[in-house]
Design brief:
By secondary structure, this protein is of the alpha+beta class. The chain is built from nine helices and ten strands.
């Protein structure tokens, strides 16, 4: 019975780990840009000039509109965008794909909206209308909200997505300032650095594994302490070597601007803490949008997975410790 219970704990840990990794990957997929938000909408001349100077930008705004299909009608949240749809809504489609940047009459809808308008998730190729404009559904993505992505030529855009590059992770603030100067956009009221939630999600996904590795390493150290020379030194060297090999993999996914060049540089710690505070304040004070809710929800779910995994790791550790004491007795 004890072995069965231990096996169930291990199985639950495996399932939670797989779910946590999948959620962290989905969160990173939805965080591939620096999002700029404005209180006042951008004028058409500014948008056109920015597109010409810096191709690849995505402009969008969020509204509520009535959408119709055949004899059905629904009031849904619409993301009106111009540019790369994947920067506006990063979640992959369950069927079809997001409309291409030059596809003026293709759209994507959520599964909830597909059921509301068409009575099925199999909506790729069907049409819906917003006012006098008819769109063809190119893709259907997972969401419980009535949501649609509709391309437009020119509307009062209030948000801009800057596609992240390799240099973005080195200094996101300086990179954003340089790009704003290059494309001629005004200073935004809020800057949302989506790379930060993605990094926190990845860290939470690996946290339970690091917890388990630390417990295993501590057990090996206690066991190796009883060895005689040279077995004891060889075991310690192997543990230190494994830690050294794991560090590059960790720093490969961790933002470089969160890694100090010198750990004794106390000014760096204060500046980084201030910058992190500004970033989180922007996430809390910026007007809420559907895509922001998906990021925040994904981060909360990731934290729940991490807590459950750590609890299961601790339960397994206690089980193994009790079994070892019982066998020793």
């Amino acid at each position: 019975m004890r072995r069965l219970f231990t096996g169930l704990l291990a199985l639950a840990l495996l399932l939670f780990t797989a779910a946590g990794m999948k959620n962290a990957a989905a969160l990173a997929q939805n965080c591939q840009s620096v999002s700029l938000r404005y209180r006042a909408s951008l004028d058409a001349e500014t948008v056109a000039a920015a597109k010409e100077k810096q191709p690849g930008l995505a402009f969008w705004c969020e509204e509520t509109a009535d959408l119709a299909a055949d004899w059905r009608q629904a009031r849904a949240t619409v993301l009106l965008f111009s540019g790369e749809a994947g920067l506006v809504w990063g979640q992959p489609c369950r069927a079809g794909q997001l409309p291409a940047p030059l596809d003026k009459f293709g759209c994507a809808v959520s599964t909830a909206l597909a059921w509301e308008l068409f009575g099925s998730e199999d909506a790729v190729g069907l049409t819906l209308s917003r006012g006098n404009t008819t769109y063809t559904v190119r893709g259907v993505f997972e969401s419980d909200d009535l949501l649609a992505l509709l391309p437009v030529e020119a509307v009062p855009f209030t948000a801009v997505e800057l596609p992240a590059e390799a240099a973005t992770g080195q200094d996101p603030a300086a990179w954003t300032d340089a790009l704003l100067t290059r494309c001629g956009l005004p200073a935004p009221d809020w800057r949302l650095y989506t790379g930060l939630p993605a990094a926190v999600g990845r860290a939470l996904a690996w946290l339970p594994l690091l917890f388990g590795a630390a417990v295993l390493a501590a057990a090996l150290v206690r066991r190796a302490a009883g060895f005689s020379f040279p077995g004891r030194d060889a075991a310690f060297f192997a543990l230190l070597g494994a830690a050294a090999l794991a560090l590059p993999a960790f720093f490969a996914v961790w933002p470089s601007w969160l890694t100090p060049s010198r750990w004794s540089d106390f000014a760096w710690w204060g500046q980084t803490a201030e910058r992190l505070g500004e970033m989180w304040q922007a996430w809390l004070t910026a007007p809420g949008a559907g895509r922001d809710l998906a990021v925040k929800t994904g981060l909360l779910v990731q934290a729940g997975f991490a807590f459950a995994q750590c609890a299961l790791c601790e339960a397994l550790r206690c089980r193994f410790r009790a079994a070892r004491k019982a066998s020793g007795a």
